[in-house]
Amino acid sequence: MVSVSLKNIKKYYNQTLVLKDVNLDIMDGEFFILLGSSGSGKSTTLNIISGVDRQTSGDIFFDTQNVNNMGPVERNIAMVFQDYALYPHMTVYKNLAFPLKMRKVDRDSIEKKVNEVAEKLGLASLLNRYPKELSGGQAQRVALGRALVRDPSLFLLDEPLSNLDAKIRGQIRTELKLIQEDLKKTFIYVTHDQQEAMSLGDHIAILHNGRIEQFGKPLEIYKKPKTRYVAAFLGDPEMNFFDLKKNDGVFSNDDIDGVHIDYNGDEITLGIRPEDIMLKKQKDSNIGIKVIVRSVELFGSYAVIIADTLSGKELRIRTDNNVNVSREINVYIDRSSMLIFDKNGDVIDYENTKVIE
Ligand code: ADP
Ligand code: MG
């Protein structure tokens, strides 16, 4: 087990700065998620942690030891990728045994370790199969097992489930979480999938254009995004945003009659999560929005209503499944569930704004 710290990591590829002063503290034994869209610098960060690639400047510590000058073998890490390649001409047993054989581990110890890992990953009955006789999920577990047999102190996983179909992905996700809890080893897991991040992570760092945009526990980030980018990135369907105009020193928007905000600036945007929009008024102070329903999609456990405000702005509403809505409805929001962003996309503390009733 090991804790990992990145201090002021910068990475240039040629003249392009792809990591801009990345700082991270990853705790011993946690499931840490690096979440970001494609091209944000996730793989670069992971490769630098592994020692496969080197930072241009900054320091990496494993516990208190600076590992800047250590290669991947010395760092004792295991990596699992999206494009895991199993050896096609070897059985599952031999695939699992291979890393140990390469390290000249004796036959009895190999057998013991392979069996132990196979048991843990539910592969015990598949040891004599060849990779082509495995499902995608089983093959991915073998890839993970191959990393496990070596007892590395740190696991680095780069979008390991992206190639699997949705159902298997969900299953393996659950298994992976259990395996990590059982092993109590540090996992650093890269993904662009917010659902994976929310369900697996003890902590999540959101990477955006080579910077850590926000770091925290999954629900904390979801409930208290610090930027509009993070607010929009997390949540399905996406958060609704309203640009507010300033008239006589007060911000308002014709669609949401009843919101008047006093703020010392030139632009603000209001953010409202689809699940925070109510179909019934709960309190007198709730703010009403008149909308025309465009579609209702049923997802089983919930429904998504897509509607248009009177000014033609799309509103996404997430509600329970047994909705029966007419074409023109009033929906409601509560002041407490609104987020306010300044023109740079940073969240504004409520203390700096005043709602005029
Ligand atoms: P992610 O894994 O989040 O999709 P990457 O870390 O792979 O992002 O890439 C981050 C940025 O660095 C991208 O703009 C990518 O084009 C660039 N990049 C990655 N690897 C190299 C490389 N070896 N040479 C030049 N540019 C690279
Ligand atoms: Mg990548």
TrEMBL record:
| Chain ranges of the ABC transporter domain | 4-234
Coiled-coil stretches, from where to where?
A: none
Give the record's keywords alphabetically: ATP-binding, Cell membrane, Membrane, Nucleotide-binding, Translocase, Transport
Cell compartments where the protein resides: Cell membrane
Subcellular location, principal:
membrane
A biological process term (GO) from this entry: carbohydrate transport
Query: Keyword Transport on this protein?
Result: yes
- Which Pfam families has this protein been placed in? ABC_tran, TOBE_2
Note the topology in the membrane: Peripheral membrane protein
Q: Which PROSITE patterns does this UniProt record tie to the protein?
A: ABC_TRANSPORTER_1 (PS00211), ABC_TRANSPORTER_2 (PS50893)
Q: Which SUPFAM superfamilies match?
A: MOP-like, P-loop containing nucleoside triphosphate hydrolases
Read off the InterPro entries from this record. Answer: AAA+_ATPase, ABC_transporter-like_ATP-bd, ABC_transporter-like_CS, ABC_transpr_MalK-like, ABC_transpr_MalK/UgpC-like, Mo/tungstate-bd_C_term_dom, NA-bd_OB-fold, P-loop_NTPase
Q: Which domain of life is it from?
A: Archaea
Gene Ontology cellular component terms for the protein in this record: ATP-binding cassette (ABC) transporter complex, substrate-binding subunit-containing
- GO MF entries: ABC-type transporter activity; ATP binding; ATP hydrolysis activity
Q: What is this protein called?
A: Glycerol-3-P ABC transporter ATP binding protein
Q: What is the lineage of its organism?
A: Archaea, Methanobacteriati, Thermoplasmatota, Thermoplasmata, Thermoplasmatales
